[in-house]
Amino acid sequence: MRTRTRTWSGAAVRRAAGAAVLAAVVGLASAGCSSGGTRGGGTEPSGAIAAARAKAPSPAGEGELVVSYTEGLTAADRESEAFLRRNEALEAVAAYVNSRVALPYDVPVDAKSCGTTDAYWDPTARAITFCYELLEQVEPAFDDSPAGLVGLTQGVVVHELGHGLIAMNGLPAGEDEEEAVDQLTAVLLTTGDDDKEFVTGIVDAWGVPAREDARSGTRTAFADDHAVDGARFHAWACWVYGSDPAGYQDLVSPAVLPEKRAEGCRKAYTKVAATWNKALEPYLK
């Protein structure tokens, strides 16, 4: 039986204002035609997972994120698969991570039909599963912004990798692993990053569910303990902005990071980075 950390739940959240600009990154999210193959049930690993298990951990940190697709089981799933392939969303975020992080072994990113709205780090398989159903649930929020849907997809993968880095390397998570992952990913995304549009696109896309909550006055199903709700989103956006206020100036806006909140972000990031830079240093290229 599969074991997993926490799960994502999806909901048809309404489209919010704000553009996710990812022009410099080839589609960060979704695409293509189906690849054939089987779903890979709950007890049998997919080919990518089996290959990763067979590879011994490398003390030199030569592992990489390895993307694979299993053919969607429904027409809707196959449409999501095609979107992911066509835009090379998963491939783009894998390339981004592989250029920065020294993983101890190959980590599969397995896109597949799951029968539920989900995405998760599987500590037994040492793999990230991205379910086509998740894309189907959040798509209405990005009806006019495929780039935003790509950004959200990539943010999900990076977040799940954060759980994986904590598990694989025994990094400190404290009492609240979700907050630890938020901090870790903010530092990871901004360390040695010259392509601000990649990170800006993820931040903007993740703000859509948070802005929906603020506008409606209710908590959407998407904003569970594994998604970024309003308070967590603004803290995360603040850390990213605080890493380079000039480079991330575009994040300062009423919809993403209010100007008053932005004033203290440099100090907030410095505090977070002091902890995570040291913890991440052995695993960064």
TrEMBL record:
Biased composition (Gly residues): 34-44
Compositional bias (Low complexity): 45-55
Keywords linked to the UniProt accession: Signal
Signal peptide segment: 1-31
UniProt-listed InterPro entries: DUF4344
Span list, region Disordered: 33-55
Protein name per its UniProtKB record: Lipoprotein
